TrEMBL record:
Top-level division of the source organism's lineage: Bacteria
Family matches, as SUPFAM superfamilies: PLP-dependent transferases
Cofactor: pyridoxal 5'-phosphate
Protein name: Aminotransferase
CDD domains according to UniProt: AAT_like
Record carries keyword Transferase: yes
UniProt domain Aminotransferase class I/classII large: residue ranges: 32-387
UniProt lineage: Bacteria, Pseudomonadati, Planctomycetota, Planctomycetia, Planctomycetales
Amino acid sequence: MRHPVLRLSDQALRSADQAIGFLMQQAVENADCISLAAGLVDEQTLPVDLVRETVGKVLAESGSGSRLLQYGTTQGPEPLRRVFREYLAELEQRTDRLSDLPLSQLFLTTGSQQLLALLAQALFNPGDICLVAAPTYFVFLGVLQAVGADIVPVTADGFGMCPAALRETLSRLEQEGRLSRVRLVYVVSDFENPSGVSVSAERRPQLLSLAREFSRESRIFLLEDAAYRELRYDGVSPASIWSFDRDRETVILAQTFSKSFSPGIRVGLGVVPQSLVKPLSDLKGNEDFESAHLNQHVVARALKDRTYHQHVQRVRDNYRIKRDAMLEAADREFGGLPGVSWYRPEGGMYVWMRLPDSVPTGFQSAMFRRATQVDKVMYVPGELCYPQDWPARPRSEMRLSFGVQSPDGIREGMRRLASSVRWALET
Ligand code: PMP
């Protein structure tokens, strides 16, 4: 039988062919590869016993347990938001426990991805502008593309997004009469996915001031994506950008328990300006009424019991070893190769590697084919982490993850990758 024409929305059409889908398909097709591509967390670190015990505890404590299996409230139950606020106060080193932060500004979300997606829906009509660091988290680029946003890259270096470049870009947009279309500056503040870079302490208030200064014709928000904030292996954490936002009307803070605890549990924590509470709550209500109620109780209980804290410490110890294994392997395998360089992250899950311009790394490149089909190793092509239509996007970079592999898997993966790179440099 012939079916009538399928008519999809513009948003569905703009969401087609996202890199993430292709990447997952590659992972399935090349299952015999060592994956340095997957941004998954290490299964060895997942808190199976802790979750089993904590689910038992929270169900037992709520009498029959049925309350936790019932609907809750869109932003998450207030008593739980209080627990999450206390935890945020710990991260922010606020001895006043952030008691001046109204609980109404807190959202418990389905991972932090949901807040990113809701925000894109709340702020963007097609043609509205989002400024992003170049490179940046490619899934958010897909989200922006889906809502028809105009994505404008801003230069970033080893200290994060450059304030001078942000000023220049905003001034240029103003001269072009497009400042009123700017809605958001997106910054991954800690151990950026993909570059591993954190925004320096000095730049944090500067980026915020620029968003404020240029909020002349319409409000420019700054989205601080702090997904990897808790995964620091050396050094000290700078204060969040959010902490400098005294009236709490510019920065949206997106955090998650995916990296530090469990991505499958899908619990994220957002702090949003008062002016965005209602629009985001309306959108979220339409989408899912609320995020998984039971899961929020589990994370809150682990926070209260401080079993969460012990767990995160183990996670950090595990990733520190793997980060070191990857950097040592990089020194050993890539050390002498001309024009190859990489960044040494203090945390997170990624090492960002640059090859000479003569070696493109994209899905269609000889390098990608060689790596996946001959040497049997996968990476994320760096070009995915830039806006698709940006003519200047670099094409010879790779995101390497030390998330899923064991230290031995990382060493072997890096050995294989170096073999592909040597081959590509010689051909
Ligand atoms: N932000 C960044 C920078 C990420 O890397 C990720 C996950 N890869 C997310 C947000 C979203 O993760 P989740 O929804 O699991 O919190």
